[in-house]
Amino acid sequence: MKKYIGAIDQGTTSTRFIVFDADGRIVSVAQKEHRQIYPKPGWVEHDPAEIIANTAEVIGAALQSGGIPSTEIAAVGITNQRETTVIWDKQTGKAIANAIVWQDTRVADEVTRYAMNGGQNRFREATGLPLSTYFSSLKIRWLLDNVAGARQRASAGELLFGTIDAFLLWHLTGGTNGGVHVTDVTNASRTQLLNLKTLQWDPALLDAFGIPASLLPAVKSSSEIYAEASIAALKGVPIAGILGDQQAALVGQTCFQQGEVKNTYGTGCFLLMNTGERLVQSAYGLLTTVAYKFGKAPAHYALEGSVAISGALVQWLRDNLGIIQNSSDVETLALTVTDNGDVYFVPAFSGLYAPYWKDSARGVIAGLTRYANKGHIARAVLEATAYQTRDVVEAMEKDAQIELKSVRVDGGMVVNELLMQFQADILNREVVRPVVQETTALGAAYAAGLAVGFYSGIEELRTKWKSDRVWKPKMAQLDRDRFYRGWKKAVARSFDWTDN
């Protein structure tokens, strides 16, 4: 039997290739960042050609540094930043424009225009999603309408659309020479074009957004053999799993039971609850999405609370203000003060996502006095992530009618002890970090492994999950209530800053 399973983790700021052993432990990893392109305020782009080149580079680097022949890899899974939108020429493989990233807000006016006929939730019953700048539908429409000749070429069947997973898969399996044009149900469910009940593209939605069906990839399960890789480093290795990054983390945390929850602290912050085969429509500002679908088994659904800015706020403190030199310095600086000094930071840089869905909100720092210093700002930056998570947890409990006992956490920020303790305090629940913290890549590897028989089933995967650290709440209830009350006041100040 082959020894290893691989995962391509194509994220918002970097691309990684990780090789895992059968126990889910990392054997080798390579990573490379790509440029963040900001042509105008609110616009965020990536260069698709750079992402493809980086992907090939990190695959080769990880295999070489680990001394791992591709013949020892049973299969590879893909996990990716979701909603980010690419349209490319099927004859050349070149994108017609830069990818429009999930954070991008250029379609805000279109959101308003569409909401005038049926409201912000006009497509929610079919898709589980409100009208927002977040999802792929209006990004596709914008590219078709604003890149010269794109709509005509799309109608003629010359162009292809994909979220990043589909773009990668097409290139990795031959590109212009027979590349497979496929996405999985989790990524498809983030386009606002998939019907959650049929798990297929919805003709009425395509018509509403003016998107030709010929652009779209075939929708497959999250765990099946799509094709073999054709690039040199992985030639002949099956690509057999695809999961959007947050769903991949849910799988990596082995949250396979209804009511189990994970929270990922990355560029943004994403809390998902597995609702089983039950499709729960949110009444409290959450998203209904596909959690995963393994082969021919029924799809599992999830409730999701999406927070646009969490780790990105620490990067902003570093890069835009220069208050810290390295992201890890934020904890040290925050520990120079004993509390937030009544300072709150609402990071609504591109509006607020769940549970508010306010595209017109913008970032605010509230509660400043002469007493406040950079330590208080650093503490407010960290606490913003914890407060936003509580907003989502409270909405999720109402929607699912399930009381959360604990939250499994992963992502780059979970090494921050101050944040994790404050998260437990403000939630008044246990926060649990697993031994293997690369749960996003691990989830994609698990999906691929299931498809090729590398793993026997989800019960085997569940036995591999182990706890590394548990934070228990210590804060007095009066303090918890006072801090959260201040946060809610600050959030209200961020609303309706722009005039969209």
Précis, in short:
With 500 residues, this protein is α+β, with helices and mostly antiparallel strands. It has helices at 48-66, 108-115, 124-127, 136-146, 150-155, 164-172, 185-188, 203-209, 245-252, 311-319, 329-334, 374-400, 417-427, 439-451, 458-464, 477-494, and strands spanning 4-10, 14-21, 26-33, 45-46, 73-80, 85-89, 99-100, 159-163, 182-184, 194-195, 200-201, 218-220, 223-228, 238-244, 261-265, 269-276, 287-292, 300-307, 344-346, 364-366, 406-410, 430-434, 467-471.
Can you offer a commentary on this structure?
With 500 residues, the chain is α+β, with helices and mostly antiparallel strands. It contains 16 helices and 23 strands. It has a seven-stranded mixed beta sheet. Strands 3-2-1-5-14-13 form a six-stranded mixed beta sheet, sandwiched between helices. Strands 4-7 form a two-stranded antiparallel ribbon. Helix 13 links the parallel strand 21 and strand 22. It is globular, with a radius of gyration of 22 Å. The N and C termini lie far apart (58 Å). The mean pLDDT is 93.
Features:
six-stranded mixed β-sheet, alpha+beta, globular, 33% helix, 500 residues
Tell me the number of helical segments per DSSP (H or I, 4 or more residues long): 16
Could you give a short account of the major beta sheet? 7 strands, mixed
Side by side, the strands of the main sheet go 17-18-16-15-21-22-23
* Overall form: globular
> Stretches where pLDDT falls below 50 for ≥5 residues?
none
Estimated helix fraction? 25-40%
**Total strand segments:** 23
Strand content: 15-25%
Terminal Cα separation, in Å? 58 Å
Structural class: alpha+beta
Let me know the average pLDDT: 93
State Rg.
22 Å
